[in-house]
Structures are given as structure tokens and as C-alpha cells.
Specification:
20% strand, single chain, Rossmann fold, alpha/beta, eight-stranded mixed beta sheet
Length: 265
């Protein structure tokens, strides 16, 4: 595997950005000869949480080792505290991650852009982003997974702290406009259920002691009621990396990944 730390200019953001990319090794014969690929690698957009960046998955899990058996590239962009949105007061990270980034990584790394080879996953804020990508563009994503995801951001509990409400407003705009909008995952799930892509696989895991457990139960109820192809799992745990390190391995088992080709003669 190759791990690349990339700095690049994002046109839609008009600023320099960072992303980490794990690339599968090329097929190589025992004598060292490279074999031309017959398929472009599959790609997983792996998204970080609210207080993290593009390096966090490598620093806190063994993701590079976990993906070694697969013909899979893992793209980990930095998106600040944006919730993968075109922020009301900030940068247009949604346009970046949903439009510019896929074109950029395809051009740079020759990754597959086929729907059946394209996946999204993330934790917490990244779980929201992964589901938003797949639910908004089911014609481009073959599956998506959320770990301890903030999957019901559109419905604000009365108990939220004023500082967090203020930050959410800077990100999403007026919070009373979120329900039923394109920022509401429950609304997007309803649209998916009425589309030709309603069988797209979705996976979610959340710890039963996690502060986002209630949001995951809300999404679970909605997804099951809509008849979506939704796999939900839970277990003891709170909002901690030791659980996500274990569960990202479960996600890789769940995804329809191709094994990396190894030629020994």
C-alpha cells in the first residue's frame, strides 16, 4: 500500500486543502515486472469527525493495514467543522466534496468512478457526510456506512447548549429551515425510498452509551419504516476511537470489495 499526504488547490473553495490517500499496490510479478491493470481500483471516501482532519483515521486506527487485502483506494479529505455542507458562514465544502473531489482523485489516481465501485463512510460528523453523499447522489455511490453518526441534525433538541446552536447556525443557516431540506438526512432517505436506487445498502453502528444514540434510533426507525436496505448494529460503547477502530473493520467486511490481485508466477 502507498500512503500519500496531498496538498492541493480546491477551486470551489479558493484555498489550499489537504487530503490523505491510501492507494493499493500495483500488481507485480515475482521478477518485479508490473502488470497492467484491467480494472481501476474501487474507492472509499472516509470522512472525519467534527474536531479532526484528514490524518485522524491513520493516527487512531490501523486503516492502512485493514484495507491491504483489497483493491481499494481510501480518500480522506479535510473539511474543517463544516458538516460537509456549503456553510452559511464559511466555505462551500459540500460542492467540493460532492463534485470537485471525485473528479480530482479520478484524474490524479485513475480510480474507478463506477457506482458499484464507489463508497462513503465516516464517523460522527463524517457519518452525516457519508450518508449525505450517498442519499443525495445514489446514482454515484454503491453503499454508505455511518459510525456513531450525527444522522439527525435537522431536528434540534431543546436541551442543546447555546454555543452549539450558534455554531450549527453558522454551518447550516436558520435551523428551523433544516427539516425537509437537502440537509435533512431523514428527508433524503424518504426521497431515496421513492427512487430506483431504494435498495442501495446503508450501514450504521452506534454505541448504546453514545450521546448520538438517540439520533441513530431516530434514523433507524425512519429507514426501517421506508423499507430501505438498511443494516443497523449497536453494542456497548460511547463516542471513542476504540469502538470505531473495531467497527471500520466491520464496515470493510460489509462492503462489496474486490480482493487485491496477487500474481505469484
Amino acid at each position: 500500500m502507498a500512503l500519500l499526504h496531498c496538498n492541493f488547490y480546491a477551486h470551489v473553495l479558493d484555498l489550499n486543502c489537504s487530503m490523505d490517500v491510501i492507494l493499493p499496490d500495483p500488481v507485480r510479478l515475482l521478477d518485479g515486472t508490473l502488470v497492467e491493470r484491467t480494472q481501476a481500483p474501487q474507492v472509499l471516501y472516509l470522512l472525519h469527525g467534527l474536531s479532526d482532519d484528514n490524518t485522524i483515521w491513520q493516527r487512531r486506527t490501523s486503516i492502512e493495514r485493514y484495507v491491504e487485502p483489497y483493491d481499494l483506494a481510501v480518500v480522506m479529505p479535510a473539511v474543517d467543522r463544516s458538516f460537509h455542507t456549503d456553510m452559511a458562514q464559511g466555505n462551500h465544502y459540500w460542492t467540493f466534496i460532492s463534485t470537485e473531489l471525485p473528479e480530482l482523485v479520478h484524474e490524479y489516481f485513475q480510480l474507478s468512478m463506477a457506482r458499484e465501485d464507489t463508497f462513503a463512510a465516516g464517523l460522527s460528523m463524517g457519518g452525516y457526510g457519508a450518508f449525505k453523499l450517498a442519499l443525495s447522489h445514489p446514482d454515484r455511490f454503491g453503499a454508505a456506512a455511518s459510525l456513531s453518526g450525527a444522522v439527525d441534525m435537522a431536528h434540534t433538541p431543546d436541551r442543546e447548549e447555546p454555543e452549539w446552536v450558534a455554531e450549527k447556525t453558522r454551518i447550516f443557516g436558520p435551523l428551523d429551515k433544516m427539516p425537509g431540506s437537502e440537509m435533512d438526512l431523514l428527508h433524503l432517505a424518504g426521497k431515496l425510498a421513492k427512487s430506483q436506487y431504494k435498495d442501495m445498502p446503508l450501514f450504521a453502528w452506534c454505541g448504546t452509551e453514545d450521546f448520538l444514540y438517540e439520533q441513530n434510533q431516530s434514523f433507524r426507525k425512519q429507514a426501517n419504516g421506508l423499507g430501505l436496505n438498511f443494516t443497523y448494529e449497536e453494542g456497548p460503547g460511547d463516542h471513542m476511537w476504540k469502538y470505531w477502530d473495531a467497527q471500520i473493520q466491520r464496515v470493510l467486511e460489509w462492503l462489496p470489495l474486490r480482493e487485491r490481485v496477487v500474481i505469484e508466477e
